[in-house]
Automatic annotation (TrEMBL):
A biological process from GO: protein localization to plasma membrane
InterPro entries (alphabetical): Band_7, Band_7/SPFH_dom_sf, Flotillin_fam
Species name: Staphylococcus equorum
Protein name: SPFH domain-containing protein
Top-level taxon in the UniProt lineage: Bacteria
Length: 185
């Protein structure tokens, strides 16, 4: 055999192997997986139909978002993904002096456990509010909202009500906290 033919065949085989390796690495980079305690928010074109797919969300302006939980997804060209932790975390809240209903100034300290809602709507709301922000920015924003709500609750109660009727106080705090679903929490 001619040496030129052998070199040509070796070059073609090398190019096929190299091309296959590049294709494999490209496909591996486009396939994203997440553990069960995280969600993957995928944005970009060709997300899917929200009527036929339960993990695709479309807002009033027509923007689409896919939420993948505990599994994998092969992303298409020009799509991007961001991981969102679904783990709970705690925030320490300390109010400045708050004047109660009876005019007594008190300072309050509290610990709030915060978690992203598990349902699609909650994850989407969280993504709309906080995607792209650092964990510290998210914690600061949530702390400010909870601090404001705690001050509002304390200002509508007397010191005796706060101390003696803990269940009523806890119920008011829970009501306000559940109202924070606008943030997907």
């Amino acid at each position: 055999m001619n040496i030129f033919i052998l070199i040509t065949i070796a070059t073609i085989i090398g190019l096929v192997i190299f091309g296959g390796l590049i294709w494999y690495l490209y496909m591996k980079a486009r396939f994203k997986t997440v553990p069960s305690n995280e969600a993957l928010i995928i944005t970009g074109p060709n997300i899917g139909d929200p009527k036929s797919e339960s993990n695709v969300y479309q807002d009033d302006e027509g923007r689409h978002m896919r939420v993948v939980r505990g599994g994998g997804y092969r992303m298409k060209m020009f799509q991007s993904s961001t991981r969102v932790s679904l783990k709970s975390f705690q925030l320490e809240i300390k109010t400045p002096v708050v004047w109660t209903k009876a005019g007594v100034g008190i300072e309050a300290e509290a610990v709030a456990t915060v978690k992203v809602a598990d349902q699609l709507q909650g994850i989407v709301k969280y993504a709309e509010q906080f995607l792209g922000k650092s964990k510290d920015e998210v914690s600061d924003e949530i702390s400010q909202v909870l601090n404001t709500n705690l001050r509002a609750i304390l200002s509508k109660m007397t010191v005796e009500e706060i101390n003696s009727d803990r269940e009523a106080f806890n119920n008011k705090v829970t009501e306000v906290a559940q109202g924070q679903q606008q943030y997907g929490l």
